[in-house]
Amino acid sequence: MKLKKTPRATVERLPIYARCLALMAKRGLRTVSSSDLADRIGIKATQLRKDLSYIGEFGTPGVGYDVEELLWQIQNLLGVTKELKVALIGAGRLGQALMGYQGFKEKGFRIIAVFDSDPGKIGTIVQGHHIEDINDLEKVASEKHIDIAVIATPTGAAQTVATQIVLAGIKYILNFAPIALILPDDVNLRQVDLAIELQILAFYRAEAERKRDQQD
Amino acid sequence: MKLKKTPRATVERLPIYARCLALMAKRGLRTVSSSDLADRIGIKATQLRKDLSYIGEFGTPGVGYDVEELLWQIQNLLGVTKELKVALIGAGRLGQALMGYQGFKEKGFRIIAVFDSDPGKIGTIVQGHHIEDINDLEKVASEKHIDIAVIATPTGAAQTVATQIVLAGIKYILNFAPIALILPDDVNLRQVDLAIELQILAFYRAEAERKRDQQD
DNA sequence: AACTGTGAACGGGTTCACAGCC
DNA sequence: GGCTGTGAACCCGTTCACAGTT
């Protein structure tokens, strides 16, 4: 067993493995081979085995992996066996969509505080969440021990909010605002930009069109 | 000038370049060097130049790039100089957030049809969009010439919807449902899974905790 | 002098080939 | 026979070093 540092690419696939294993467990499947699991996900079996080799040895040669066991190992590694506390900043349409998103709860995340800067929203209750003043973030974060912050504000507010998040001592940020945030090195950032995904599709569409035009 | 096939990794960065350049153009900046632009984005200057080298030669040695010109070239390559038509499937909370998302319009995407399967929603108007029956997708798609479909349905409906999208002849899909869709090879798929991003952050958080526990 | 464009070197990630185990 | 775990080979993407341009 080698146990080198888990490569970034592997880390980004672990949640996908967990998702698939959870589904299989729910359906009552007991064991799974690397090729079976890989097929369901749409990757090569060797890649799956290599990924798992970075985090341990969970399989039985000639048999495969125990579904429950492997799921538990991955969830444990992801640190989602205990519930993680999430602060959501921005109670606009995207923020509301995130509040209602079942996937968070299922995967072990709990939105425990919601902030906004709009006085018209602060103090109201949206989908069961009491909306708090963004300026209270630091106070609330220390009281409630927030693990992760999610930025769902308009672009213009995102950098200010990010700075407040850092001041509040939160080190893990998921940002939906389409802007490159400036953050200290020890803060972990994931960026989701909805428009970028469409633009990537647009590129391949344009490329296909160019190819067609060229050939005819 | 070489013009090999543009690497996947480069394609995924082009929208980021476009976003930054658009901002600079709006602020009235005329030219930019590779190191300046790279710094704003948070990458190395050599990577930016290498990326651009795949798509052409747009710079002037000793000077840099013309902001407007480079922006136009990238937008052209992305095929977003003409407006692209998007069909949104699923008018739930996420769907509504997407309808209201300014970034799509700004980047040249237009939500031109919205579908749902809920009889209570079909026929109503949400944020100015007439909600149509998902079973009319094929008809509407051929009438309105849809370029890209966005799946914002519950997980359970996603595969069925995806199949309908393919039947409607749409070849570019952005999927928000947390499921591995089975699609023909010639269909282009991008996947955004909100929970996965949080789980990746959770991994690094758990890793940091493990490291702490070990040392103390 | 300042900056671009690119071959070459490097490094991380994927795939192959196979040894070892059930 | 069927399957896992893994070194080695391979491939792709990033970075370096520098030749070439204004």
Describe the protein in words:
Chain A is of the alpha/beta class. The first copy, chain A, has nine helices and ten strands. In chain A, helix 8 links the parallel strand 8 and strand 9. In chain A, helix 2 crosses helix 3. The radius of gyration of chain A is 21 Å and the shape is globular. The interface between A and B is large, with 61 and 61 residues. The structure holds a DNA duplex (22 and 22 nucleotides).
What does this entry show, briefly?
The structure is a homodimer of 216-residue chains. The first copy, chain A, is of the alpha/beta class.
- Integer average pLDDT of chain A: 95
Count every beta strand of chain A, where a strand is a DSSP E run of 2 or more residues: 10
What is the chain-wise order of helices and strands of chain A?
Answer: HEHHEEHEHHEEEHEHEEH
The assigned structural class of chain A equals alpha/beta
Which pair of chains has the greatest number of interface residues, and how are they split between the two chains? Answer: A-B, 61 and 61 residues
Query: What portion of residues of chain A belong to β-strands?
Result: 15-25%
What is the rounded distance between the termini of chain A? 56 Å
- Looking at how many chains there are and whether they match, the oligomeric state comes to homodimer
Which percent bin holds the helix content of chain A? 40-55%
- Write out the strand line-up for the largest beta sheet of chain A, numbering strands in chain order: 6-7-5-4-8-9-10
The parts of chain A where pLDDT drops under 50 for at least 5 residues are none
